Amino acid sequence: MTDTEAVGACASLLDDHRLLVEPACGAALALLYSDRQREKFAGLESVVVIVCGGSGVNWQVMDEWKQEFLF
After folding, report:
1. 49 closest CA partner among 67, 37, 57
2. What's the burial of 10, exposed, middle or buried (CB within 10 Å: 0-12/13-18/19+)?
3. Tens of pLDDT along 21-34?
4. Cα(20)–Cα(59) distance, integer angstroms
């Protein structure tokens, strides 16, 4: 998992569900959000990802991560 994939998953979760999480959580989410990683789950009916770890992030921090890793 790359830092870019983890931060990208954090940004996607924010867009999809309005939840702020840290990249450690984003690494687990990237398995579902990243096209490269999602292929590993092809054929499965259900996948569970536990989402936690938002105490160290706010809008400003998320914006900084997005600027550093996504743009």
Report:
1. 37
2. buried
3. 999 999 999 988 88
4. 8
